[in-house]
Amino acid sequence: MKQFKEELNKYNHLEDIDELWEDSRKSKAVVKSLEKKVEGLENNLYVAKQQINEEKTNYESKINTLSKKMKIAYALAGGSIGITLIQFVLNILGIL
């Protein structure tokens, strides 16, 4: 038994094993904590992406609605200008 103990004492870093074991346990705890944080961030990112997609859809529909309204406004303005020009020409010709 004494000889075995002497053999063990010859190893330089045998005492470091306990410290390494504790460090590995602490590292595992840190990794678990970081995994939970990453999972929370992934969930937040997913929610943010959904909100962005919803807002994008809303803005696209608003843009389409406004484009249709602008086309109608341009058509009405063009029609009004056309009627005014016809009336102007008829006034010049003396018909009106």
Description of the molecule:
This protein has 96 residues and is mainly alpha-helical. It contains two helices and no strands. The longest helix is centred in the middle third of the chain and has 78 residues, at 16-93. The chain is rod-shaped and about 135 Å long. The model has no long low-confidence stretch (mean pLDDT 90).
Any low-confidence stretches, pLDDT <50, length ≥5? none
Query: Main β-sheet, in a few words?
Result: none
What integer value in Å does the Rg equal? 40 Å
Instruction: Tally the beta strands.
Output: 0
Helix content: over 70%
Give the N-terminus to C-terminus distance in angstroms.
Answer: 130 Å
Features:
mainly alpha; 96 residues; 91% helix; single chain
Describe the SSE topology.
Elements: H1 2-10, H2 16-93
Structure described in brief:
The protein is an all-alpha fold.
